[in-house]
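Morning - NAP inputs below, output right after.
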Amino acid sequence: MAEFPFWHILGAGSIGGLWAARLHQAGRAPVMVLRHERLAEYQGLHIEQEGLIPVAAVSSATPTADIKRLLVCCKSTDTLAALSSMTRSIQEDTLIVLVQNGMGTYEQVCQRFPANRILCGTTTHGAFRPAPFHIVPAGEGETLIGSLDSSEHPPPSLTAEIESLNCPGFVTRYVHPILPTLWRKLAINCAINPLTVRYQCRNGELLNIPRARTEMAGICSEILAVSRALGRMEGIENLESIVTAVAHQTAANHSSMLQDVRAGRTSEIESITGYLCRIAQDCGISTPLNNALYQEILTLQQTLPSPL
Ligand SMILES: NC(=O)c1ccc[n+]([C@@H]2O[C@H](COP(=O)([O-])OP(=O)(O)OC[C@H]3O[C@@H](n4cnc5c(N)ncnc54)[C@H](OP(=O)(O)O)[C@@H]3O)[C@@H](O)[C@H]2O)c1
């Protein structure tokens, strides 16, 4: 066995591609799994200001026997279809790690691959993709990964496997339990991303629009009501201040939800606000502001023209 465990990466976009490049630069020999139709145009990953990084790639349609560890960095909306396109390569002992915004995909993937160990994570790294396989890094952060089964104490070998994803330029840690981290990220995304679509503005501009600020406060109190009912208050007691600080820190950014809606792509609203609204309904908690934003963005997605 190699000194470092060997990873396949599905979802070679901004985050998955950048991570693959950093692992390659660290000598970990990752292999990207691409849509079959993308393979012919792939010549390596172009990382802005660094040049071409020759990360290996295979087609998702070609059965591959040796996939033991699969890192999935697709958008939540694409994850199940992407995994389903390579079922012949996913064995019962393939470890699947989902790193994405939003929640709810984990349950779908568990249902589709009931025998597999599935972990979840979230990242604060930033990157964007002006063209396929051309990635512009946009800020180093941290990636936290763990099990959503909080009763399961992670074996040290699992922690070591995950920490083999840690490399210069892509700090990664195993965290147990991971649920508070994912829930906190969901709460922040719910309070910023859909409002940037409603007001068609950058994250920081929300703080200068009095009506948006009032709505942000209302969204935070709805999320806190749901969090209290679920006993998930850890790390979000002062949610409104956290959200305000994140909007300040990311003031110049256009949220990915706004970018998706403007480009006519399906956004991750379903796994962000949609997920929150479904959980709230299950708890019998009313979330009218979140429900209205959810419906508004679904409607916008349906009315805007799709990309060619
Ligand atoms: N970008 C950021 O700065 C950032 C920061 C924090 C969190 N995130 C989260 O990280 C996740 C990934 O975001 P991203 O910005 O990296 O997205 P992205 O640039 O759109 O990359 C997604 C990748 O998934 C691939 N994909 C989709 N369906 C596939 C399929 N059926 N088979 C194979 N590949 C498939 C896409 O390939 P095609 O190009 O062929 O469609 C694309 O390369 C999202 O949940 C996002 O919210 C992103």
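Note: The pocket of NAP is lined by residues 10-16, 34-35, 38, 60, 73-76, 78, 81-82, 85, 100-101, 123, 126-129, 132, 256, 268 (CB under 6 Å).

O.
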